[in-house]
Amino acid sequence: QVPLVESGGGLVQPGGSLRLSCAASRIVVSLNAMGWYRQAPGKQRELVATIYSAGNTNYADSVKGRFTISRDNAKNTVYLQMNSLKPEDTAVYYCNSKYSSDRGTASWGQGTQVTVSS
Fold it and tell me: What is the average per-residue pLDDT within 11-37?
């Protein structure tokens, strides 16, 4: 229903860092579990990080220890700090309500492209 806008992607070398931002609404960010997803060429969209309304987080094994999801309710924004990037992290990254995504009712935006290459 409400647009979510991702930004912060770009081209980086292996081992580099990026910080992605997801701008949403006050209600969506503060009252919902929010997730960062990615889709690489020829692959299905996958959930890589989740932050719940209480503040607890969860990560896919492939990014644990390298990525950090956070939330700023005052700015209506969810972040994904990406460190020690690898070529296999190359994908289009999206944010969304985890509840809507799990139900298959989410509306997906354009996402932001992350390319890790030497």
Answer: 90
